[in-house]
Amino acid sequence: MLGFGQDIGIDLGTATVIAYVKGKGVVLREPSVVAVDNNTNDVLAVGQEARRMLGRTPGNIVATRPLKDGVISNYTVTEKMLKYFIDKICGKSMFSPRIMICIPSQVTEVERKAVIDAASKAGARKVYLIEEPIAAAIGAGLDISKPCGNLIVDIGGGTTDIAVISLGGSVVSSSIKVAGDKFDEAVVRYIKKKHNVIIGERTAEELKVNIGCVYPKIQDVEMDIRGRDLSTGLPKTLTIYSSEMLEALIEPAMMIVDAVHSVLEKTPPELAADISDRGIYMTGGGSLLDGLDKLLQEKTGINVMIANDTVSCVALGTGKALDNLDILDRKRR
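Below the sequence we write its predicted structure tokens.
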């Protein structure tokens, strides 16, 4: 197959880009951040290096995330980012790769076309799209070809995709723009309101990962952070407790629970019965938020499982779907 260029599966996430190469597994995992020089429009850094620059750049350099809420918000920068990643994976290969990219389940035609165009211009020979919940289900090891219902909740950086999947397609699906980023924003807002201190996105994310929870913990844990005191304008150190994080994060967490609830309400009764037997599968980095599975289980009364290697689930599923590219090609013809 390599004679014709590689087959690459890309999980083009709001927070992270993960790439899977057929026969090699996951070969790339980088933050979807690009640093651009505004004066020359040159890309200075991509991925991990650019993420270190977030909130720390001089006026002429802007570190941005070209994807917002799961879709492309800055087309040119996304194209440059994809080109950088594809070159990094393929090296000096003479042949262009075939690429399969994940998209949220409720994107518009225009948004779909933007992804295809960006990947084509970045050097793909052919571009295929796959819906995120379907890729997540395949990556979580579920057999989606059978006529029985699986409920997948994929919580990424920009969107939470919820879908009931049966016979290889989604029967009922919903995509909401509440996910990892909204949790971070909720933390920033809470600390500003309660402590009159402003903190950066990265500090908010560290708080969420280390002591964040959406279900009461048995023991209150704490973490020291630094921010800028709004009354004095000077740096200030604060101790934040997990009980405060619960207050900050419960609102966006309940939005996800409500979205799952409304998908269940629209699910045909036969499939709903399957789901209550088989449980709900959670994938994506956002599902690792402490207590989110317990909260969802308590509110729906259905068993909730977090998939193995939950962060890479979508990329792995895209990778497995690459095996069927030849079938897709024949269908197109």
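Residues 2-135+314-332 form a domain with the Nucleotidyltransferase; domain 5 fold (CATH 3.30.420.40).
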